[in-house]
Amino acid sequence: MGMTFGIEVACAFEPFRNEIEERSSELAFQSKTKRPHRYCEAHAILWRKSAYDYPSSPCCVASRYQTAMPLTSSHLTQALKTVLDPDLGKDLVTLGMVKSAEMAGNVARVGVELTTPACPMKDKIRSDIELAIRNKAQEIGAGGVSVEVAFTADVRRPNEKTRGESNPLPNVRQIIAVGAGKGGVGKSTIAVNLAVSLARLGARTGLLDGDIYGPSAPTMLGLSALGTQTRDNLLLPFQVHGIKAMTIGKLVDADKPLIWRGPMAHGAFKQLATQTEWGELDYLIVDLPPGTGDVPLTLSQLLPLTGAVIVCTPQQVAQDDARRAVRMFQQLGVEVLGVVENMSYFVDDNGQEHDLFGRGGAQIMAETMQVPFLGALPLRTQLRVHSDSGTPLANWDHPSLGAELDRLAKNVASQVSIASLGGKYMMPTLSVRSS
Ligand code: ADP
Q: Among 77-81, 99-103, 167-171, 431-435, where is mean pLDDT lowest?
């Protein structure tokens, strides 16, 4: 009878088939004790079989067999191979994101290195890991397990090319341009707050105000009282609000018109980018001049960009310009990380939302151009006030505004990870066809 029992329960206890067969007499003995048991699927199978063969259930034996197969770190690795990074579409083990996976008693401790501290998928990854490990425990008949997931982050470089001699900024891991089809849509506001948000989320972040015709960083970052400093012929960036910033606006007379001819503008931009002592940076946000003319086009080619964020307001005329900006970057071979819809709607002091410009227009434009939509930012008086007063961190004192800005920054960071791990990084080139 014991023999029959052993074979019948083998579907759940295959690893213990021999042991069950050998211990069939003990099984019968244990069955008489009627000790209480904890329910699990494997138990249930044994229970059903035993109810047939042994009216008084031998569940205490099942418990013993369950603890006889504890989870090991290799079981954890097997479980983690089934957990996909939701953005990157590959499993955590293949992506090299699992830094440790160990059992300590009945606690599974897993260390995961994310590709950005601004990962929007942290909670999902954590719950997927917990589920995969619990499923694994059940599958092998191990007892209850608790799971602890610890996250670290290391922003990856797009690829080894960026370390090469041709890279003018080898210590900067990801360079993200912020562009717009035209001026006044909030490009500088987004660039500044994107940089501050990424820094708040734990990334080493710089801001290069490359809008040489209308530098906004001196005002938006409150740099007016600060003087420029140099060391060993390099400009020292302004260390403010958690970021490192440099702007042409601090190198020229603020009240004089900035009249740049093409080559001068390129020279000034390149000098600003390459002769600033940035140190090691995870992200450098570059605020480009607006439009799709010669200057923004050429500036986009001077640095190895991971990609470009396009800022657009919802109106049709703004969309038309933004579409041209998207095409410009695509023609240059620069990945379009996505479109931000700024001034999407207006929120008054009572929290009431008003659709002024045709909310959702930029989102539809992004969808029709098949580029990611990074999110919408409403018109908020506080954002304008904090921009004018050079106090961007105050945006995070506002209950909704800080969260809206963080959501944008996380979406940008996740598109950067996708772009760089997808290997799409390339030095921009413009091919000119003669017809
Ligand atoms: P751009 O760089 O595209 O020329 P700016 O970032 O300088 O535009 O923004 C233009 C003006 O609009 C600034 O005064 C800025 O504070 C304001 N602004 C931009 N976005 C918003 C917003 N979402 N809510 C309120 N004011 C905004």
A: 431-435
Q: For residue 22, what pLDDT is reported?
A: 53
Last residue of a domain, which of 123, 153, 183?
Answer: 153
Q: How far is the CA of 384 from the centre of ligand 1 (A)?
A: 6
Residue 236, domain member (yes or no): yes
- Residue 64's pLDDT band, with cuts at 50, 70 and 90, is very low
d(CA 31, CA 163): 67
Q: Is 379 in the pocket of ligand 1 (CB under 6 A)?
A: yes
Does the predicted TM-score (pTM) go above 0.85? no
Ligand 1 mean position, distance from CA 295 (Å):
21
- Distance of CA 390 from the midpoint of ligand 1 (Å): 13
Domain count, the chain: 3
Is the residue at 430 inside a domain? Answer: no
Is there a domain that residue 284 lies in? Answer: yes
**Ligand 1 site, residue 386, Cβ cutoff 6 A:** no
CB atoms within 10 A of CB 420: 23
Please, what is the average pLDDT of the chain?
A: 83
Q: Has residue 29 been placed in a domain?
A: yes
Q: Do residue 339 and residue 202 come from a single domain? A: yes
| 135 and 184, same domain (yes or no) | no
Residue 216 CA to ligand 1 centre (angstroms): 10
Q: Please write down the HEC assignment for all residues of 264-321.
A: HHHHHHHHHHHCECCCCEEEEEEECCCCCCHHHHHHHCCCCCCEEEEEECCCHHHHHH
Binding site membership of 297 for ligand 1 (Cβ less than 6 Å):
no
Q: Are 271 and 308 in contact (CB under 8 A)?
A: no
Q: What is the pLDDT of residues 278-317, one digit of tens each?
A: 999 999 999 999 998 887 888 888 899 999 999 999 999 9
CA-191 nearest atom, ligand 1: 6
